[in-house]
Design goal:
The complex is a heterodimer. Chain A is 82% helix and 0% strand. By secondary structure, chain A is an all-alpha fold. Chain A has one domain. The relative contact order of chain A is 0.13. Chain B is mainly alpha-helical. In chain B, helix 4 runs antiparallel to helix 5 and helix 13 packs antiparallel against helix 15. In chain B, a hairpin with a 2-residue loop joins strand 3 and strand 4. The relative contact order of chain B is 0.09. Chain B is built from 19 helices and 4 strands. The chains are: A mainly alpha, B mainly alpha.
């Protein structure tokens, strides 16, 4: 619905601008989701990470609306938002929600992770037409960019981080990317239900890890 | 409740969740978690001959399929033996779980995990089982990383690996979905096979992606990790057989047998070599599982030339071998009050804890598949089929076995040393002689009379029609 309203508004713009806006509206949520995933990879501030996670899941709505009916397209983003809420409430209970320091000087590790993330997305963007042609001809380029981009950033997060909270975010990012891809390939209610269960369990495991780590810190 | 899916999958899941509410009453929870899987295993065996059963004049008839989200899950009478094996395994581990400090989640979650491993074998389309395996990994987390300790690297790596395997398996099915109608698409078959093998390697912790295995055995209570790893190894072995049974393109792939042989022998040799250099008994357990996975993969390769029954021949002795290892390591951990069981703590063990020491040596000999012990008959057949063909594979397996023997000799040299004078040790209970004698007797009986362990599993794999020769 949101997509059709925006598309309607675009029709009133002059011809060239309309196409450009159409393109921007098409790719904006995708780049927003990828930027949120990279922010989660780079920054280590729990509040900021939760906001990025919420942005990531909200940005998935327009690409999913393009391939699925509205109720089905909302399953993954809503589950993701529930997961974010569970993590937020857990962090609130252990006193982990702090003020965001947006302009704090980035560390060398953060710069490294940001560069690797951007490099991976760029490489993916370059080779995307080949990947599409060879493996996923029925999936659109923008959809592939979002799904494989999230898979790559999630993988990078899983490979570079040991902290349980970021492991949870890494797995969530990785699985979301894969879910977006599989929803373009085949849709099954059973599979969707199983993925919802996995995502919610992942939130519980993440909350369990956060509480456990705080408890063991207090013991020390 | 006259449906196989409801009785053997949904009911235990619900009962497992119900046990969570009474887990504070440890003894009651343990008793229920022992009785429920025993009843489920027994009833599964009773109905495995047919879903119509007459007991004292009353006829019980069960239906074999159930609809969930538009998909049909089916468990036929033939397949009930698989569930009987899984629930028997759950029963074995819950039976004496009260002896060890395994935490209050063990009883309830072990039942839930067993029910989910049962579901893995029967969900349709069966590739969706990959998501259930991810669910199992997540549910295992409270057992692998109990409260009071920070989350360590082993559990984090375990979760990462299990998650990475999920897309590989799901995509493999999609990638070759049209292969039956176009059998000439070789590149698709190759791609699909690679995805399947990579997915299973990540799940089972096959060399070289096994690093989480020794880390996890080091971090977790032996009784818990032996349960989780044993049911996982057996569950994955049966799931891989389902893959082979279902997908003709995978079953008939040229070179699959050879690839499986190489994977299996690499697992055995890497486990053997790494075992020599270990100084912590808790990590030794991880490498024993790696070698066990290797032998299962070799058995899968052997079934291409030999009978499928070879797999069922090895499953019960393997379960028993892991159970005895879990018991020994847990008893040792309790006696020494040590989590990692460093070799320095084992100096003079024979003089301090003779019964546990005997059990330790016997359990290790058994799990290495040495002659006279229960795993020997199946290992001998596997090696007879696999190792006679290729010299490098023969060499790899020999080096692996040599490594295991060297590890055992090294351990013997430690435990036979005179005990250090470090104050008062705990006194070994004289009653321990009973379980030790019973376990030793079962090991030897299994070695001398292989049918003792193989007979109960007759017909376990009859549902894999395409694999039966």
């Amino acid at each position: 619905m949101v997509g059709s309203i925006l598309a309607g508004a675009v029709n009133y713009l002059p011809f060239g601008w309309g196409l450009l806006m159409d393109d921007i509206l098409h790719f904006l949520p995708i780049y927003l989701a990828l930027a949120a995933a990279i922010l989660n990879l780079v920054r280590r501030q729990w509040t900021l990470n939760l906001i990025s996670l919420a942005v990531l899941f909200i940005s998935m709505i327009p690409p999913l609306l393009r391939i699925l009916p509205t109720p089905l397209a909302l399953i993954l983003p809503f589950t993701g938002l529930m997961v974010t809420l569970i993590l937020y409430l857990t962090l609130l209970n252990v006193g982990g929600i702090e003020r965001i320091h947006l302009f704090r000087r980035p560390t060398s590790g953060e710069i490294f992770r940001a560069l690797v993330g951007i490099f991976l997305i760029t490489i993916l963007r370059v080779f995307l037409p080949i990947i599409q042609q060879a493996i996923f001809p029925q999936v659109s380029l923008s959809h592939l960019l979002l799904s494989l981009g999230l898979v790559l950033v999630g993988l990078l997060q899983l490979g570079t981080i040991q902290e349980p909270f970021y492991l949870t975010i890494g797995i969530l990012t990785f699985l979301s990317g894969f879910q977006i891809l599989i929803s373009a390939l085949e849709f099954s209610y059973l599979l969707e239900a199983l993925f919802v269960a996995v995502n919610l369990l992942l939130a519980i495991v993440g909350a369990f890890f956060i509480v456990k780590n705080e408890e063991s810190k207090q013991h020390e | 409740m006259n449906n196989t899916v409801l009785i053997w999958i949904a009911l235990p899941l619900l009962l497992g969740l119900a046990l969570v509410t009474i887990q504070r009453f440890r003894r009651l929870s343990t008793i229920l978690a022992t009785i429920i899987p025993l009843l489920l295993a027994g009833s599964a065996l009773l109905f495995s001959g047919g879903l119509n059963l007459q007991i004292i004049g009353r006829v019980f008839t069960l239906s074999d399929s159930f609809q969930v989200f538009g998909r049909t899950i089916q468990i036929t009478a033939d397949q009930l033996r698989i569930l009987a094996l899984l629930y028997f395994l759950c029963f074995l581990w819950n039976l004496i779980s009260g002896m060890f400090d395994v935490g209050r989640w063990f009883n309830s979650l072990s039942l839930v995990i067993t029910a989910l491993w049962g579901a893995v074998q029967f969900i349709s389309p069966f590739l969706y089982s990959a998501v259930v395996i991810e669910l199992i990994a997540l549910i295992s987390t409270p057992l692998l990383s109990p409260r009071g300790t920070p989350a360590r690297n082993g559990v984090i790596r375990f979760l990462s690996m299990q998650t990475l395997a999920l897309p590989l398996i799901l995509l493999s099915g999609w990638m070759v979905s049209g292969i039956e109608t176009s059998p000439s698409a070789e590149s698709l078959v190759l791609r699909g096979s690679l995805l399947v093998i990579a997915g299973f390697s990540l799940w089972a912790g096959i060399f070289p992606v096994h690093s989480w295995l020794p880390m996890l055995t080091e971090e977790t209570h032996p009784w818990i990790i032996t349960f989780l790893q044993t049911i996982m190894q057996i569950g994955l072995a049966l799931f891989f057989l389902a893959f082979l049974n279902h997908f003709a393109w995978l079953r008939n792939l040229d070179g699959l047998t050879q690839v499986l042989k190489w994977i299996g022998s690499l697992c055995v040799v890497s486990a053997g070599v790494m075992l020599v250099f270990q100084r912590k008994l808790s990590r030794v357990l991880g490498y024993i599982y790696l070698a066990g996975t290797g032998y299962i993969v070799l058995a899968m390769a052997s079934t291409q030339q030999g009978p499928l029954e070879l797999i069922s021949l090895m499953l019960l002795p393997l379960t028993f071998s892991y159970w005895s290892l879990g018991f020994t390591f847990s008893a040792l951990r309790q006696a020494l009050d040590s989590e990692i069981l460093d070799y320095d703590e084992l100096v003079g063990l024979v003089w301090r804890y003779p019964r546990i020491s005997i059990l330790l040596v016997a359990s290790l000999l058994n799990s290495f598949g040495m002659p006279l012990f229960s795993l020997f008959p199946s290992r001998r057949i596997i090696l007879g089929i696999v190792a006679t063909e290729s010299l490098p594979i023969r060499l790899f397996i020999s080096v692996g076995i040599l490594g295991m023997v060297l590890m055992l000799l090294r351990l013997l040299s430690v435990i036979l040393q005179p005990p250090p004078d470090v104050g008062q040790d705990k006194v070994e209970s004289p009653l321990l002689v009973l379980p030790v004698a019973l376990i030793l007797l079962l090991m030897l009986v299994g070695g001398l009379f292989p049918q003792f362990f193989s007979a109960p599993l007759n017909g376990l794999l009859v549902s894999f029609q395409n694999l039966l020769k």
